Amino acid sequence: MNKGFFLPLLAWLTIGSLSTACKPASTSATLPKLSFTTDVRPVLEKHCVNCHHDGALMGDLKLQSRATAFATRAKGPVILPGDPENSPLFKVLVLPGADPKAMPPEGHQIPVEQIALIKRWILEGADWPEGPEGTVKPSQSLQ
Ligand code: HEC
Known about the structure:
This protein has helices spanning 3-22, 36-47, 66-69, 88-91, 112-123, and strands at 52-53, 56-57. By secondary structure, it is mainly alpha-helical. The protein has one domain. Strands 1-2 form a two-stranded antiparallel ribbon. Heme C binds next to helix 4. Heme C binds at residues 47-48, 50-52, 58-61, 75, 78, 88-89, 92-93, 100-101, 103-106, 110.
């Protein structure tokens, strides 16, 4: 292969891969919507569901599936889609550590990025798929 052909080809390949890498995930200017399965579920799985599922019912809250999380409860809904400030699921994350209702009870706070993520997810409408993608597994049942 001679240089006259090779260099332009190399430049073309480089520019091609750069523009692919920089392509936004969504065509709109706003951030792409969070995904329950990839963004939110890991947080609930790691910090919440071990205490909040069928077998360990704390605070009358079950977070292992869409159906249980949105089930009618005596204390009212825990997630109000579009309204994180009034959703107990978010409110308990921003309580001062000394507050007995701050979640999770040990540590009293999850990383701020994860709190922001829960807030944004509720603001975006709290989409929670049914079926395996929306199933949050307590880690105790995996052991
Ligand atoms: C170690 C166990 C444990 C963990 C982990 C835990 N919780 Fe709780 N949670 C409780 C208990 C116990 C209560 C009941 C407290 C009360 O009634 O004062 C509660 C209550 C709540 C309530 C109020 C429920 C209601 O009926 O209104 C919410 C909301 C909540 N938890 C959310 C969470 C979230 C979100 C996480 C994860 C960041 C989490 N919890 C992690 C034990 C836990």
